[in-house]
Amino acid sequence: MRVLVLNGPNLNLLGTREVAVYGTATLADIEQEVRREAAGAGVEVEFFQSNSEGELIDRVQGAKGRFDGLIINPGGLTHTSVSLLDALLAVQLPTVEIHLSNLAARDEIRHKSIIGRGVAGRVEGFGASGYVLALIGLISLIGSKA
After folding, report:
1. Residue 4 and residue 72: Cα distance in Å, rounded?
2. Which residues pair with 3 in a beta bridge?
3. Would you call 52 helix, strand, or coil by DSSP?
4. Which one of 14, 22, 30, 85 has the largest count of C-beta atoms within 10 Å of its C-beta?
């Protein structure tokens, strides 16, 4: 099983950006934890982060036929990117949306996920450990479709 983990704008700043909201774990820390969990489950994972909406869309489109599922933290694009939603709907891969914070507890603009219609499920509010939870959920989801 192959899984692509995508991270959107500003997630490269984890560990130093709004620590009270996002915690102290860096993106490298998160990747290490996900790799550890994935290895134990026999899953190959690839990671990509970009501050560019177009690059993320290209990665989603390129995932079809190469990956069995996606985990995506679109950052601020969650609330604005119809194009990212369209890409997710087009590739039709099992996808889990992940957010470090609880979006419903944040400012109102963050309450709605535009891309939510293009994902099978969402994990939010568990900080860095949410990525491992997303992986476990995605593995279960893919396994149930096999």
Report:
1. 8
2. 45, 69
3. coil
4. 30
Q: Which residues of 63-88 are buried (b: 16+ CB within 10 A; e: fewer)?
A: beeebbbbbbbbbebbeebebbbebb
The residue segments making up the domain with residue 82 are: 2-145
Q: Give the distance from CA 90 to its chain's centroid.
A: 17
CB atoms within 10 A of CB 145: 10
Walk across the sheet containing 121-124 and list its strands. 44-49, 2-7, 69-73, 95-99, 121-124
Please write the tens of the pLDDT for every residue from 54-113.
999 999 999 999 999 999 999 989 988 999 999 999 999 999 999 987 676 666 776 678
**What is the domain-level CATH number for residue 126?**
3.40.50.9100
3-state secondary structure of 96: strand
75 phi and psi angles, rounded to 5 deg: 55, -140
C-alpha of 120 from chain center: 12
Token digits of residue 76: 């601020």
Instruction: Indicate which residues carry an active-site annotation.
Output: 22, 99
Beta partners for 96?
71, 121
CA atoms within 13 A on the CB side of 98: 29
